Amino acid sequence: MKKIIAMITLGLISSGYAVSQTSVWKISKGDREIYIGGSVHLLRPNDFPLPKEFDVAFAKASTLVLEADVKDEQILTKVLSESMLPEGQTLKSILTEKQYQAIYDAAENTELSFSMIEKMKPGMAIMTLTSTQLSKINLSVGGVDIYYYDKASSKNKNVEFLESIDFQIDLICNLPFNVDEFIAYSLNDLKKMEYETEFEKMIDDWRQGKAIAEDEIKEMRHLYPSVYKAMFSDRNYKWLPKIKKYIESDDTEFIIVGSAHLWGDDGLLNLLKKEGYKIGQLRVKN
After folding, report:
1. Is residue 123 exposed (0-12), middle (13-18) or buried (19+ Cβ within 10 Å)?
2. Exposed/middle/buried for 219, CB within 10 Å: 0-12, 13-18, 19+?
3. Phi-psi region of 36 (alpha: psi -120 to 50; beta: other; left: phi over 0)
4. What is the DSSP string of 12-73?
5. What pLDDT score was predicted for residue 189?
6. Which residue ranges make up each domain of the chain?
7. Secondary structure of 110-154 in the HEC alphabet?
8. Crossing angle, helix 122-135 and helix 165-174, to 10 degrees?
9. pLDDT tens, residue by residue, 217-230
10. Residues contacting residue 218 through CB under 8 Å, at least 6 positions apart
């Protein structure tokens, strides 16, 4: 379950020496600066070590800032209390025939027994299907955010959060958006995960600091507007004032969020640029 919530809640050029481009940016105004890194929330063992720029930003920062506290000691209790349907209800009894059949077919395709999810709320049922699919390509290791959360704990570095884990659990379990859109979007995404080459490309693009989700974000905004609004744009706009306060503080913070939050018209990089902040990709000599 913790792995599911952690999800919810991505080049080398030669110029005399190698310079790697990664998903870490320096955001500055005058002599004040912070770092923002794009995270892949789940990785494989062979995806480590991470690009050096992440270590550089972490070392410079006095505070690590993550989306939410996925190590909350009460997380399992919270998930269990929110993820199940009321007594007597099942997915079949609360969904339309089309919605139910789509989830049922997806469960069969992932070879997950439908009995494991039939009493879950739709959002958590789909997250469970997603987790099952990802485990097939050995995505069993916590991602960038978990890695640095552990590192911050070992070094007694301050850790703060942009939102609560309760908010993330509620977002997935209670679906504050169009259910048809969410099912269509999620199951379309699930089909893409059937191919390990898709993940390989995503990791390669993430390491190079490319806009790995820009096309997908645009597609989501057009085809699944209520999901886009709740999952991305609303959260980005809520985070923006907090991020601006970090920039204005005397300390240096390293903020790590899912890479998809960085891109698009409502992405954090564009929103900060509009606010007059200087945005530059962090680069480290190899």
Report:
1. buried
2. middle
3. beta
4. -EESSSEEEEEEEEEEEETTEEEEEEEEPSEE-GGGPSPPHHHHHHHHH-SEEEESS-TT-T
5. 77
6. 2-285
7. CCCCHHHCCCECHHHHHHHHHHHHHHCCCCCEECHHHHHHHHHHH
8. 100
9. 788 899 999 999 99
10. 264
Length of the chain: 286
- Cα 148 to chain center, whole Å? 15
Instruction: Tell me the C-alpha distance between 280 and 74, whole Å.
Output: 38
Pairwise CA distance, residues 137 & 43, whole Å: 10
Alpha-carbon span 185 to 130, nearest angstrom: 12
Report whether 64 contacts 58 (CB < 8 A): yes
Question: Mind listing the pLDDT tens digit for each residue in 247-280?
Answer: 999 999 999 998 889 988 999 999 999 999 999 9
Helix (H, G, I), strand (E, B) or coil at 245: helix
Residue at 52: amino acid letter: K
From CA 197, how far away is CA 205, in angstroms rounded?
12
CA atoms within 13 A of residue 89's CA, in its CB half-sphere? 11
Q: Is residue 278 helix, strand or coil? A: strand
**CA 273, CA 237: separation in Å to the nearest integer?**
13
